[in-house]
Write a structure and sequence with these properties.
heterodimer, A: 111 residues, mainly beta, 6-stranded mixed sheet, 5-stranded antiparallel sheet, 11 strands, 58% strand, B: 113 residues, 7-stranded mixed sheet, 4-stranded antiparallel sheet, 50% strand
């Protein structure tokens, strides 16, 4: 089967650092994506990892370990506008390529 | 402006009626996807298409149907067989079905009464 797990909710304080974890078990692997989704809106792309290691993009970084089926999204210098859901997605390769999303993590940033 | 458009944004239907949600993209993307999102939940894959005239069932295809007669268009029909159709529906596309970023439409919120 295919499984992508994330914590349901997290809370952090403005200015702090937060790490959102994602673990996956999928049939084949062809890349992992992180998206941000504000309530009632469409998801927007944040980052992409296909090789092991850390990808940094401003206040956001994403890490991947393929052998462990594990990724995390690191958000630094949190701002109130970062309050949103963060979705982990994997492109699987079992016969056809499928873009599968995790359950998402709702992040609340408190003043 | 290139993008992916879903219409309408809000849709109300009576129970037992079929309804078709529109999704159009002018990004020249090969791959298109339909997802369903319930309150406080992640995205669940309904159907996807890697190329024109071809589509595959996702994880929750029962009660839904799609077509991909044109590269730009991937309409989703929610049939009366779908037991719980009220949800937020998101369409997405990507350049290729492999390892590229997905672009999303603004979504259609379907309410069945």
């Amino acid at each position: 089967g295919q499984n992508i797990d994330q914590p349901t909710e997290m809370t952090a304080t403005e200015g702090a650092i937060v790490q959102i974890n994602c673990t996956y078990q999928t049939s084949g692997f062809n890349g992992l994506f992180w998206y941000q989704q504000h309530a009632g809106e469409a998801p927007t792309f944040l980052s992409y990892n296909v090789l092991d290691g850390l990808e940094e993009k401003g206040r956001f970084s994403s890490f991947l370990s393929r052998s462990k089926g594990y990724s995390y999204l690191l958000l630094k210098e949190l701002q109130m506008k970062d309050s949103a859901s963060y979705l982990c997605a994997v492109v699987t390769t079992s016969g056809t390529y499928k873009y599968i999303f995790g359950t998402g993590t709702r992040l609340k940033v408190l003043a | 402006d290139g993008g992916i458009t879903q219409s309408p944004k809000y849709l109300f239907r009576k129970e037992g009626q079929n309804v078709t949600l529109s999704c159009e993209q002018n990004l020249n993307h090969d791959a298109m996807y339909w997802y369903r999102q319930d309150p406080g939940q992640g995205l669940r894959l309904i159907y996807y298409s890697q190329i024109v005239n071809d589509f595959q069932k996702g994880d929750i295809a029962e009660g839904y149907s799609v077509s991909r007669e044109k590269k730009e268009s991937f309409p989703l029909t929610v049939t009366s067989a779908q037991k719980n159709p009220t949800a937020f529906y998101l369409c997405a596309s990507s350049i290729s079905p492999t390892n590229t970023e997905a672009f999303f439409g603004q979504g259609t919120r379907l309410t069945v009464v």
